[in-house]
Amino acid sequence: MIQSRTVAYRGRDVDYRGELFLGAGTGKRPGVVVFPEAFGLNDHARSRARRLAERGYAALAADLHGDGQVFDDMERLRPRMEALFGDRAAWRAMARAAWEALLAQPEVDGERTAAIGFCFGGATCLELARSGAPLKAIATFHAGLLPELPEDAGRIRCSVLICHGDEDPLVSRDVIDAVMGEWRRDRVDWEFIHFGGAAHSFTNPDAASRGMPGLAYHPKADARSWAAMCRLFDEVFGEEEGGR
Question: Is 3.40.50.280 the CATH number for 3-241?
């Protein structure tokens, strides 16, 4: 049986409220931060955290905006996104606060943690890894990728899985080439999977309801990308520790 509880944490004078999901059992287990889409901690992120808990992990669905706030339209959300894109130190501090909140949970083995994220949450995973956080792995799904900062060279210490819709109009080929060049230079353990026919937000069954061009659910890409993440976690954590 999966249980959940609210986890309050603080970062840069902002109070956050995440939700931790745990399966049965005692003792410490690997922990995974789940960073939601830009709109905030909604049912999509909670459902993914629950699925991770079913596989034996402690999964913290993170709060992106403070006080558990969820935005319902892009016009209200845009100033928040512009502020984070313009201050990547603050963005990384938000991500780091969520990861440290995960580490503070008594059920979590702090030596074995990972992060996953969707859209903006996927980009947040990469920003967390670039901050030097000692994660075992990150996995991103239709992430809004950005090039590194000059001081980021050599900071990524974990395995990286990028699951990307080949028809995603929101990420340019130049940016993809730039981040691949970063990983090649630093000899990061990375994998970049293109899913044919998939656009942005391909894991979210409600993507089309946003009424935004370039967003569409793709069931095959959703299932295959999740399976790729599971294989990676089986590898970095060990099959006996989750991933059944």
Answer: no
